[in-house]
Amino acid sequence: MRRLSIRIRFSLTIGLMICLFSLVSIMFTVSDIKSSIKDYETSVNDSALKVETIMNSETETIEENEKVAGTINTEDSGAMPFDSVEIEDTKSKVLLNNYTQAINLIEKTQSEIIVSEILFSILMGVIGILVAYPISVLLLKPFRELSADIEAVTANDLKTPLIVENESDDLGKLKKSFNVMLERLHGSFERQKRFSSNAAHELKTPLAVIKTNLQILDEESDIEDYKEAFEVVNKNVDRMSVLVNDFMEYARDEAPQLGRVNIRKMIDDVLAELKSLSDKKNIKVYMNVKDVEIMSNEGLYKRLVYNLVNNAISYNKDNGSIYIDADERELVIRDTGIGIPEDKISKIFEPLYCVDKSRSREVGGSGLGLSIVRNICQTLNYRIEVSSKVGFGTEVLVKL
What we know:
Blueprint: H1 6-69, H2 74-77, H3 82-152, H4 170-215, H5 223-251, E1 259-262, H6 263-273, H7 275-280, E2 284-289, E3 293-296, H8 298-314, E4 321-326, E5 330-335, H9 357-363, H10 369-379, E6 383-389, E7 393-399
Parallel strand pairs: 2-4
Antiparallel strand pairs: 1-3, 4-5, 5-7, 6-7
Helix pairs in contact: 1-3, 4-5, 6-8, 8-10
């Protein structure tokens, strides 16, 4: 079923509120009427009871006088004559009769009054709806204009913000929030464009090298030419494989399954896998790792450690050192490598960003290692900090 528009819902709400308010007023009015009738009835009954008591008292007095004197002496006794008692009795009966007729009349017309009041409430509700609808049109006009402005925004003009006339009112705050969202979307699209461009460039380079080496081979090429071309092709295929795997890892968006992970065993496994790379550069590794377990995702935590240690080895100096400290609260990896310029530290987590592209190609990096580390930290709710000094090495702190 199609939902009603805001204007219609607003009008119906106003009408129903007016109708409800009128009905509540009717309830209180009827309650007041009943209370007044009850109070009046009680007052009349009390008066009638007093009259009846007086009449009975006077009658007893007259009867006693008749028994004593045989006649009634109204002047000496001061008692009310019997005729006067009868008159007062008649007046009381007439008063009660009039009261009874009034009560009957009110009870007879009470239901008619309630029906009339209900119909009046419904009429007021309808009038409220009819009046509220054009008011809602005027009130919602700025929001319709805002909706039109939002619909006019395309991917090509995300940099153009909405005009905010007054930042203090609700509409101005809404536009301001939308401009913040536009800015974030623009930054996200720009990063996506850069990523796509860099990814295409990174894949294009090894493909061009492979194609060039295959094209130079012909029937006159000797076995050495084939061996050389094979080595070049094999090396670039390996590079493309690393790139594709890193792309898949970077694009992964899965809810991690947490379990108990022994950090000492995990780091030992990573160092064993990278031993050939560290031995090649004669890198010494110093560890201060507690043999404790943490709640984490084994695969993601291993990938995080692997990427950080791999970077510490790849961008280290020959005969350099790596220091690894880890416990249940944090992971710290320091190296004595080439370091990172201070103005570049904020960019190293961007995908495919390389501080020194020639150096990255030399060590075979894809430029996605730290981007993957950042994604893992966001997924596992870790916090990562980097400090570095050119020529003195880099320190990476991951707070678990």
